[in-house]
């Protein structure tokens, strides 16, 4: 016996890139995905994502696939548009006449022009999302993906940075042993251009008065995790300066471990 209907999720975001994107796909009973952005009565926007279902045999399996697809979409927004995306919430499900709804109230549609994508960017986003959706494996998220998603869905800069570092610690572990030297080895290998390597290398004093090297990302993490007498605002400024590069590094590590 098969069922049809829709599953709808709600996510808080901080940019208004488009009004609506509709993606027609064929993936185990998911026929279409519709993404809509509207403005709430507070400084965040509301992203609603509908999965239109048809001839579904295993609804529980489809629910797992939809949340995986949604998380991958949100990661794409995080990476490509430096967008904050909160945790997704199931707000509506309607299957064969059975429905439940808990839709957030007071949604107001606006059209701010500052964030809206240009036509070429919009087409590129549609293409990227369709590629992401069509390549979602039918499995639960791995630990590194969960860690990465937790980092990218956090609004606090320092917390985001520390979670990203923890993700990289997990991804670069050897024989289940996590060490910052493994992290730095991975970062320097990723930065295969000599000039870029120089920018992300730092030195730190050892107890015996000599110096060892650590990447700037490890240095910033340690400025939070250890006492180094560095002004907190200086650390935050440098985290902000290097964040986008760090996200790309961690993203490559997560992809390698998938």
Protein model, in words:
With 258 residues, the chain is an alpha+beta fold. It is 45% helix and 24% strand. The strands form two sheets. A six-stranded antiparallel β-sheet has the order 2-3-4-1-5-6, covered by helices on one side. The chain is elongated and about 65 Å long. Mean pLDDT is 80; it is low at 97-113.
**Which oligomeric form is depicted?**
single chain
- Find the count of extended strands (DSSP E, 2+ residues): 8
Flag low-confidence runs: 97-113
| Principal-axes shape call | elongated
Please count the helical segments.
8
Structure class: alpha+beta
Which radius of gyration do the C-alpha atoms yield? 21 Å
Distance between the termini: 34 Å
> What proportion strand?
15-25%
Overall pLDDT: 80
Question: Mind describing the biggest β-sheet?
Answer: 6 strands, antiparallel
Q: Helix content range of the residues, please?
A: 40-55%
Order of helices and strands: EEEEHEEHHHHHEEHH
Report strand order across the widest sheet. Answer: 2-3-4-1-5-6
Structure at a glance:
The protein contains eight helices and eight strands, in the order E-E-E-E-H-E-E-H-H-H-H-H-E-E-H-H. The protein is an alpha+beta fold.
């Amino acid at each position: 016996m098969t069922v049809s209907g829709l599953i709808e999720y709600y996510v808080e975001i901080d940019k208004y890139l488009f009004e609506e994107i509709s993606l027609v796909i064929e993936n185990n009973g998911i026929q279409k995905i519709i993404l809509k952005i509207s403005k709430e009565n507070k400084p965040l926007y509301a992203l609603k994502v509908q999965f239109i279902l048809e001839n579904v045999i295993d609804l529980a399996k489809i629910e797992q696939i939809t949340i995986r697809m949604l998380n991958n979409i949100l990661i794409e927004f995080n990476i490509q548009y430096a967008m904050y995306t909160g945790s997704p919430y199931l707000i509506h499900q309607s299957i064969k006449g059975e429905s439940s709804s808990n839709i957030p109230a007071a949604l107001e549609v606006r059209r701010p022009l500052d964030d809206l994508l240009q036509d070429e960017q919009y087409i590129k986003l549609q293409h990227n999302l369709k590629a992401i959706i069509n390549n979602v494996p039918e499995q639960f998220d791995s630990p590194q993906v969960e860690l990465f998603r937790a980092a990218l869905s956090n609004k606090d800069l320092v917390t985001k940075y520390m979670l990203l570092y923890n993700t990289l610690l997990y991804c670069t572990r050897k024989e289940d042993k996590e060490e910052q030297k493994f992290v730095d080895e991975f970062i320097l290998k990723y930065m295969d251009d000599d000039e870029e390597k120089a920018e992300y290398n730092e030195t730190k004093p050892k107890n015996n008065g000599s110096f060892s090297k650590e990447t700037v990302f490890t240095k910033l993490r340690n400025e939070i995790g250890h006492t180094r007498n560095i002004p907190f605002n200086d650390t935050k400024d440098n985290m902000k300066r290097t964040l986008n590069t760090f996200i790309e590094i961690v993203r490559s590590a997560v992809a390698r471990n998938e």
